[in-house]
Amino acid sequence: MTASPQPIDDQTPPFHKAADVSASAKQQDKQNQASGQSSPIEDPNRRTKILFFYQDFGAAGGIERFIAQLAKDLFDAKSYDPIVVCTHDSPLYHRLKEHRINVHGIESSGWLSNPHLRFLDLATWRQVKQILDREKPDLVHVHIGHLEHLFFKRWGYPVVYSFHGYGSLYSMANVMNPVKRWIKQLTRKCFRWMAGKLDALVFVSHAEQRRMISEEYLDPDMQAEVVHNGIDLTLIEEKVGKTDIITMRRTLGLPVKAPLVSFINRLDANKNPWHFLELVDRLCAIPELEAVHFVIAGNGPLEDEVRVRTRLKPYRDRIHVVGYQKDIYPLIATSSLIVHIPDREGFGLGVLEAMALGVPCIATKVGGIPEIVDIPEQSELLVYPGDIDGMVQRAVQWLNPENTQRDELIQSLKTRAQEFDLSRQTASILEVYHRVLNI
């Protein structure tokens, strides 16, 4: 692979289990034969079954879009049968249904939704075991969790684990409470132990891998693949091209011609909707920007509070909280500026989607975002978390209609986004699958 989704650099030694992958696949082949499953190694005409496991609890963000895109790409490839196990009646569940993907919805106990407790939800695991017995996948690709993948290993399945960057769950930074710090230390020991049980570990950015090593969640001599997320550039263009933007704006209650500054994120503390509202406060005080309106799109635990705080603002008529949007690409395309300012980020798919549509995006310099925005104008888009002054300065710069550099920036964004085409991501993921299954 010559583009961005490629193996990690030589600074990190090879994955200590790499030499055992072939043996693992052969062992799985024997188990398949014993249980009556046909083997992808022996039967070249049989579709390889890949089961994605993701307990999303109704979330809607970058990980969900990643899974939906990858599953659809495998489905279209004809030689794979993607199977997705996710939370029943979630946005991801319905999106997969629309794409005719084989999806199983699981009912989970709400009080066990805490990441540290999910693996204790025995009712969920009974449902998962029934699905496994029925579908008999060749490989399980886990996209979230703490110790969940051990169930799949215990049941004899090869496991690929994608680490998307789970906010503060796997981080010791700024943890001062003694009890929380003890829990974090235990979590760190569990992750180091469980990483050695995987058939392959995949990170979505070099930054996340380096952070996990520096915070001692991962042994330095234990490699993981780094595969950047990809986007379906053709699909994005088609969706935008088929959308009547004026009708969409009117449907969402947006002014037809006003410039829009949009915040399209899961509404939780990590994504910083309050920092966005601080930015809005500052921009609304600038007379030259009086025509600008602001959009907050997404769902999450802070959605109700965001709506309440917005209604209390003196400029509330210029802020539009539109909730979860199944198709975000037309909204991105009609925006003059996107704001993506999390404290922590594994990759930053929202930034990449804005780039693909040629929309400037103010983003925080965290996680994989600098790897995405690797263009000459990077410093004029990225800020450190909490730097409201920096956000204001960059917003004013790119909202200025007389800024002659905007066209050049748009071209740089689009050119860079081309390097993250979904086909490259899928090819890299398939290389991991093939190595694990020895096919």
Describe the protein.
Helix 2 runs parallel beside helix 3, helix 2 (62-76) crosses helix 17 (422-437) and helix 13 (349-356) packs across helix 16 (406-417). The chain folds into two domains: 18-230 and 421-437, Glycogen Phosphorylase B (Rossmann fold, 3-Layer(aba) Sandwich), CATH 3.40.50; 233-420, 3-Layer(aba) Sandwich (Rossmann fold), CATH 3.40.50.2000. It is α/β, with parallel strands linked by helices. The strands form two sheets. Strands 3-2-1-4-5-6-7 form a seven-stranded parallel β-sheet, sandwiched between helices. It has a six-stranded parallel β-sheet with strand order 10-9-8-11-12-13, with helices on both faces. The model is unreliable at 1-26 and 32-38 (pLDDT under 50). It has 17 helices and 13 strands.
Please write out the topology.
Blueprint: H1 21-34, E1 48-54, H2 62-76, E2 80-87, H3 91-98, E3 102-106, H4 122-135, E4 139-142, H5 149-154, E5 159-163, H6 178-195, E6 200-203, H7 206-214, E7 225-226, H8 233-241, H9 245-251, E8 260-264, H10 273-284, E9 293-297, H11 303-311, E10 319-323, H12 329-333, E11 337-340, H13 349-356, E12 361-364, H14 369-372, E13 382-383, H15 388-399, H16 406-417, H17 422-437
Parallel strand pairs: 1-2, 1-4, 2-3, 4-5, 5-6, 6-7, 8-9, 8-11, 9-10, 11-12, 12-13
